[in-house]
Amino acid sequence: MEKVINEDVPKAFGLFRDLVTNASDLTSNVEALTNKVKEGAISTSQGLSFLEVKYQMLLSYLVNVTHLMVHKCQGGSLEGSQDVHRLVEIRTVLEKMKPIDSKLKYQIDKLIKTANTGTAVNDPLRFRANPDSLVSKLDEEDSDSGSNVDDDEEKKSKVYRPPKLAAVHYDGDQTQQSKLEQHMEKAKKKALHSGVIQELKAQYSEAPEEIAEGGSFRNTAMKRKEQEREEYEERNFVRLGMTKKERTALKQDKTMSHLNDITKFGDVNYEALSGKGGFEDGVPSKRRKSSGSAKKMKGKGKKKGKKRHSMH
């Protein structure tokens, strides 16, 4: 222990002598700057506020360090000392100021060099970017244009114009299995509303028997459409035409019996209901084949018609 003390004491006295010398030099420099500021030789009214805050924080840091050293030299304890808390706070603030200090370093050096040497004609520093010029002015233009647009909108008529957007069903998240299940569900619902099922339901139901024109069971939806059509024609004194699809549906609805298509429930194949039929992209494969064969038959019919025409 004595050996350590004997080695540290000369070093401590050397540091004290350096401290006294540096303190005297610092005092003379601070007094000279203070006199210049008081005389008005140095203008501090239009300086950078960032540097002013930085210097105030550094000065407070030095004051608290000095007070802490005095407290330790007197043998006091650091536990619960406010100087330590203030030093930690000031150091945190100074560390947070380093990024801003590095960004302003070029601008500060340029101003100092200009103040000391004056402005040169071929000064390369004047071609560097100015941080103030990098601030975007789009916000101001947008605010001005926005106010003009608001004024124009107030002058216009306040008539509601719906957006020109069409709602589209999104099925990108559906898998092949979910599409198949959805198609099967639609097929079952369609089969339950077919003519054969409706006739069987009417036969075993306890409700009064309904006798329709043509002797067959009339579809409720078809009857409702016909009733609406008749009411419209009677009310407006006009006769509405029927499309080919509507005439075909009416003809099928008035058919005496659907027993020839016992395995099909309203154009719904039994294989589609059982899941044995082919299915691609939510459309049964047999339906695709039938559409293709129908086109072929249609083409053959045209050819035969041409041949008959040539024979005549």
From TrEMBL:
GO cellular component: small-subunit processome
Top-rank taxon, per record: Eukaryota
Signal peptide: none
Any one GO biological process: maturation of SSU-rRNA from tricistronic rRNA transcript (SSU-rRNA, 5.8S rRNA, LSU-rRNA)
Compositionally skewed regions (Acidic residues) per UniProt: 139-153
Region described as Disordered: 134-163, 273-312
Listed Basic residues bias regions: 285-312
InterPro entries linked to this entry: Sas10/Utp3/C1D
PANTHER family the record matches: NEUROGUIDIN, SOMETHING ABOUT SILENCING PROTEIN 10-RELATED
Similarity comment text for this entry: Belongs to the SAS10 family.
Protein name: Uncharacterized protein
